[in-house]
Amino acid sequence: MAKNYTFHRIAFYIGIVAVWQIIAMLGVWPENIFPSPYEVAEDLAYGAADGSLLYGIATSVWRLSIGLAIAIGGGIVLGIFMARVEVINQTVGSLVLGLQSIPSIAWVPLAILWFGLTDGGIVFVTAIGAIFAVTINTYTGVKNINPHFIEAARNMGAKGSQLITSVLIPAAFPYMISGFKQGWAFAWRGVIGAEILFSFLGLGFLLNTGRSLNDVSQVIGIMIVIMGIGLAVDGVIFKRLENKVMSRWGLR
Predict the structure, then answer these.
(1) Would the pTM count as exceeding 0.85?
(2) What is the pLDDT of residues 168-212, one digit of tens each?
(3) DSSP labels, the chain
(4) In this predicted model, what pLDDT tens digit does every residue of 16-74 receive, in sequence order?
């Protein structure tokens, strides 16, 4: 069954490229507006050859990794406190719900004012865009733990940090995985958006450079790279981790 899904997926993308090539050959739009798949691939090959594409990927992924790590760590701590301390839930919890509605890109002006045009500003936008999704899913996971499990752990001597690391986090982990996936998606959008506006290094910078040079091939090529990285991370890391966790918890 999995092989059939893989075949269908590959056939689907091949079909998209074929239709794209046919439209380009028909000359519905000028080449400078609608380049062919070959021209986009050629542009990506040039970028890989001179190192700009690989350096852009490495820079964006590095910023993403730092921002997402901060978001996951902070989101787990905040989510647990919200779930276990009602005063924090009633105060900070309402603020978290409000802040989650703010798009990552809206934090860019504040990041520039606070950090200037530095990596710190981009990491800030990345982390702030992801932390609230992790927080809310962690809160939901801890809240859904059977209270009898927590009482049993306490009766066996678990308390403080031991209760958190040995009971709360493992029991809430299926929910937390969903938060990590959402956080990753928000963080990836945040880092690319911030790089476009900060305009230095990274895939967002290459995207903006293509726009400045009216190079549609580069713009489309970088967009494909961004999408490809997103699909790869979701399929290779989060999908496997989610399947493993769900199987272990007997949810699949």
Answers:
(1) no
(2) 777 777 778 888 888 888 999 989 988 888 767 889 989 988 888
(3) -HHHHHHHHHHHHHHHHHHHHHHHHHTSS-TTTS--HHHHHHHHHHHHHHSHHHHHHHHHHHHHHHHHHHHHHHHHHHHHHHHH-HHHHHHHHHHHHHHHTS-GGGGHHHHHHHH-SSHHHHHHHHHHHHHHHHHHHHHHHHHTS-HHHHHHHHHTT--THHHIIIIIHHHHHHHHHHHHHHHHHHHHHHHHHHHHHHTSSHHHHHHHHHHHTT-HHHHHHHHHHHHHHHHHHIIIIIHHHHHHHHHHTT--
(4) 888 888 888 887 787 778 888 888 898 999 889 988 899 999 999 999 999 999 999 99
